[in-house]
Amino acid sequence: MQKALSAFLSASLRRLPLSIPAVLILFALVAGRPLAAQDDISTQHGASGYSGVFLTGPASNPLSFLNGPAGRTTANPAPYDFHDFAPVTYLDEKLPKWIDLVTEERFRYEAYDNNSFKLGANDSYILNRFRFQVDLHTPSWFRVTAQVQDARSGFQNAPIGPPNTVRWDLKLAYAEIGAPDKHWFSLRVGRQLINYNNTIIANSEWRNQARSYDAAVVNLNAKSAHLGIFAASPVVPQAYGVSPHQEGNNIYGAYGRIDDLVPHSNLEPFFLWRVQPAEVIDPAAAKTTGHENEKAFGVRFKEQVHTAFDYGGELIAEGGTVGPHTIGAWAAQGGAAYQFLNAAAKPRVFTQYDYASGNSNPAQNGKHSTFDTIEPTAHDRFGITDLFGWQNIESVRAGTTIEPHRRLTFTVQGLDFWAPSELDSVYNTSGSSIVFNKTAHGHHVGAEIDSYSWYELNKHFNVGGGVGYFGGGQFLTNVTTSHSYTIYYVALNFKDNGKK
Question: Which pTM value belongs to this model?
Fold first, then answer.
């Protein structure tokens, strides 16, 4: 077995990050079943969760059973209100110990008005996502995982395709030696999730298809120090068939974490290196492309001072080249939250500040100053409307979350947005230009107010909904046909981890 395993890893590593190991593809096909998301040490922290993730939540993806204890809705050990329902777990208990099954079903209704600030660009539709996963493993040191996903939209205006419709795709297909939450060394090779840092490299789980990577990842763990080293290529979702990654679009990185440098804290230094053969040099002004060689250096710090108070911050600097231009960009964020644990409904107040640099005039100065958000978690980075990415943006956020009943939360938050550079665009979560000011019209982009709620019925099922409204400021009003945007959603989520 050791000889066969060695040959498999050698062949796979020679091709990474450019392909999925053929053995894993064959395994997924032989499984012959429809295939869901994994929960491990690198995917536990969801956007806007408690314990110093984004500090603002919970908002976007608060499922305790999807994100692990650090991202749960209420961090409340109290019992659930409804009896649990876990058919895959019941089935799993009857199977051999070396087989685990996971299934997930997510249904969401969405509606919006004035998409891309175009008057009358309205739509409403339903989203459905089904996942099924099979794990074959030894008691502790070796695992093979395969998962397929079927994501579809209904009643949506054309065009129909990614990110809402990606039919029967191979979402996960990897082999792993060691367990990152148990062993000092682990190696995972194949199609997988990477989520060391939601702000700049993550799986963006709120999207209907989410994001996978063809990658090789090594995790090294000591008592209080951890290091992840990886080479990855993001998968480009296709409407049908097994989605490929983009040839030459590669990310290499080292992501560290030091625990308890001060009590109850995490210090996370990291380095990312991204290369692309044909990146758009200046998305706001033209579609001209050039080779990108970008390096990002960053550090993030989080501390939970005591049960009620936590804070954190992050600073990232980017350099390198894109086409003929040098890169010189940076971004920062910081926030704090306090929960009144002894008050009725346990209100939690939070505030956060974000900044990402923009271009002044790259055509003249030869310098690309718009921050590159790389591959982030998209939802609720800047409110639940998901209008903006972390590029040429300055944002202030404040809000409160209450718990009127165990495992039930209501959140209200407000955000105000500014563009550091009047002559640059504002960008969406995929890095595409939304509105480009050819002449200066003011820095104020607009303001947003959100309200949303989540309720965990039991360990495997929750329901939530929300509404977000954005009103445009001077940056937008002179160059758009509509100055407002509204989105509504209702979501139902079920996931059965099949844990024995």
Answer: 0.84
